[in-house]
Write a structure and sequence with these properties.
It is a single chain. By secondary structure, this protein is mostly beta strands. The chain has one domain: 6 Propeller (Neuraminidase), CATH 2.120.10.30. It has no helices and 27 strands. It has strands spanning 4-6, 12-13, 23-28, 35-41, 46-51, 56-61, 66-71, 76-81, 87-91, 94-98, 105-109, 118-125, 131-137, 146-151, 157-164, 167-172, 178-183, 190-197, 202-203, 207-211, 218-224, 230-235, 239-243, 249-254, 260-266, 272-277, 294-298. It has a 5-stranded antiparallel beta sheet with strand order 1-7-6-5-4, with no helix packed on it. A 5-stranded antiparallel beta sheet has the order 2-3-27-26-25, with no helix packed on it. Strands 16, 17, 18, 19 and 20 form a 5-stranded antiparallel beta sheet that branches. The two termini are 25 Å apart.
């Protein structure tokens, strides 16, 4: 399998963090069409992420600055590392196991084979190693066609809730008892939270957690920190937001790109906030040559939560 490798350029933006102690660095200059799905694996000390439309799976090593790319052959929405080795992922044609070293692909299930215009988008594991992923209509559209699914370690697949335009924002609180989801559609742009039964993997009734009409960016990918705050990538708003468990914006970070897509804590001490971005549909006339790249925000003084591997 072809592997593309690039070294980290030296570029940083102190931005609004200059007085607050943090800085934004360019980690991997990829110019991805739709960079997304960042997952830090504590075991291999790498950041895994995807370029959805290109079907590329990236593996970034912050120690060496190398970013390796593996071609999956179709759009990939999200992934997680497996306890058994390799990756589990949700792609255009459903759920797969994938070994990036050998290129082996094993299909698990395609719950939306009857929806050829759909693809999978955002996802992550819960604290018990179940893999969650949400779908969306690939080219958008007026009718919501997205659904969230849960893949259990025994490979049982369950649909939870439909009616999403762009199923996004999946994250779990540090104690595993809250599940966050969002819809990025401009007509919706809300984040919901559910009480989560860790024993069964069943979410409770969804309630509005945060309405992003009060900030510049629509909700895209999300993560949580060790203090239980939810971090949202404000796509189309040039910003990242840290939101308290009570729904209060505690911190706004100005990004050097219009469309940040997914924040994820990583690094040896889980204190670096990695942020993916996209380069599609940018506002004309705005200078953002690094759009689609991977960024690293350092010096926040905040730690993330270890991401659990898929238990299957």
């Amino acid at each position: 399998m072809a592997v593309q490798i690039g070294r980290m350029p030296e570029r940083l933006w102190p931005g609004n963090g200059c007085q607050m102690g943090y800085r934004i660095e360019l980690a991997a200059a990829t110019r991805s069409a739709l960079g997304e799905g960042a997952v830090w694996d504590v075991g291999d000390q790498r950041l895994w992420w995807v370029d959805i439309t290109a079907g590329l799976i990236h593996r970034y090593d912050p120690k060496s600055g190398l970013n390796e790319s593996f071609d999956f052959g179709e759009p990939v929405g999200c992934l997680a590392r497996r306890e058994a080795g390799g990756l589990v992922l949700a792609a255009k044609s459903g759920f797969w196991f994938f070994d990036p070293e050998t290129g082996r692909r094993d299909h698990i299930a395609d719950p939306e084979a009857h929806l050829p215009d759909n693809r999978f988008n955002d996802g992550c594991t819960d604290m018990q190693g179940r893999f969650w992923a949400g779908s969306m209509r690939d080219a958008g559209g007026p009718a919501p066609a997205g659904t969230f699914y849960r893949l259990d370690p025994d490979l049982t697949l369950s649909a939870w809730r439909g009616g999403f335009h762009t199923a996004n924002g999946l994250a779990f609180s540090p104690d595993g008892r809250r599940m966050y989801v969002s819809d990025s559609d401009p007509a919706v742009r809300r984040i919901w939270v559910c009480d989560y039964d860790m024993e069964t993997g069943e979410p409770g009734e969804a309630r509005v957690f945060f309405d992003t009409r009060v900030v510049a960016g629509r909700p895209d990918g999300g993560t949580v920190d060790a203090e239980g705050c939810y971090w949202q990538a404000g796509v189309s708003g040039w910003q990242i937001y840290r939101i308290s468990p009570d729904g209060e914006v505690l911190l706004t970070i100005d990004m050097p790109v219009e469309k940040p897509t997914k924040p994820q804590f990583g690094g040896a001490n889980l204190d670096v906030l990695f942020v993916t971005s996209l380069s599609l549909g940018l506002t004309p006339g705005r200078d953002q040559p690094e759009a689609g790249s991977l960024f690293a925000i350092k010096g926040l003084g905040i730690k993330g939560v270890p991401q659990v591997r898929f238990a299957g």
